[in-house]
Design a protein that fits this description.
The protein has 6 helices and 3 strands. A hairpin with a 7-residue loop joins strand 1 and strand 2. 60% of the residues lie in helices and 5% in strands. It has a 3-stranded antiparallel β-sheet with strand order 2-1-3, with no helix packed on it. Helix 1 packs antiparallel against helix 6. The protein is mostly helical and 214 residues long.
Length: 214
């Protein structure tokens, strides 16, 4: 595939994925669409870190904008992309790869740890409290279903508040995992594409017009 054509495919795809990542992380900050939990600080740690905004979102969107611009510049103008543009595209794609990787790791941790919620621990001599009921902390098994909650939807009612928080977190963190994994693949493809452009130039510049010097 031509270097310029590949950029015109990868760039818009990353734009869409970066936007989805930002939206998913914003929704994680407002469980059930309510703002009071964010105001009270009752938000899962991995959602507070906002990996979908700075990692899989803004970083990827900035890189995707450059990739898309270079690809369409090569297609529609006499000033086609140069090896310098290809090199810059490869370097920026590495930043997108790092950002999406960070988003993937933090989203995976958020998914496996379970959400911060209000749950009943009266069997331990306490009333309802905020915490991570599905997380094994310090070797103490908080709940018998801790190791299997992702595969036991009937255990999700352990969380009393926010209502439906487990399904909310599982859905959105899973979406972030899928989005960031796809971003990692596309960023890797663009790194290879940029390296090819550095070595060979943009093939569209060789078809009907002379390639400008670097």
């Amino acid at each position: 595939m031509c270097v310029g054509r590949c950029s015109r495919i990868v760039g818009p795809c990353l734009l869409v994925l970066g936007t989805l990542s930002v939206i998913a992380n914003i929704l994680l900050l407002f469980p059930g669409g309510e703002w009071k939990y964010l105001a009270d600080g009752h938000i899962t740690k991995q959602a507070k870190v906002m990996p979908g905004i700075w990692g899989g979102g803004i970083t990827v969107l900035l890189v995707a904008t450059h990739i898309t611009a270079v690809g369409w510049r090569c297609a529609g103008c006499s000033d086609c992309g140069t090896r310098r543009n290809a090199f810059l595209s490869a370097v920026l794609s590495k930043l997108a790869l790092l950002g999406s990787t960070a988003c993937f790791i933090l989203s995976g941790v958020g998914l496996t740890n379970g959400p911060l919620c209000l749950y009943n621990v009266s069997e331990h001599g306490r009333g309802p409290t905020w915490g991570y009921p599905f997380l094994d902390t310090g070797g103490e098994v908080v709940l018998a279903s801790a190791d299997y909650f992702l595969y036991k939807p009937d255990a999700w009612d352990t969380c009393l508040e926010p209502v439906g928080i487990v399904a909310w977190n599982v859905t959105l963190f899973s979406l972030l995992l899928l989005v960031s994994a796809t971003e990692m693949v596309l960023a890797s493809i663009q790194i290879l594409n940029g390296c090819v452009g550095c070595l060979c130039g943009f093939c569209e510049g060789k078809k009907g017009r002379p390639t400008l010097p670097d």
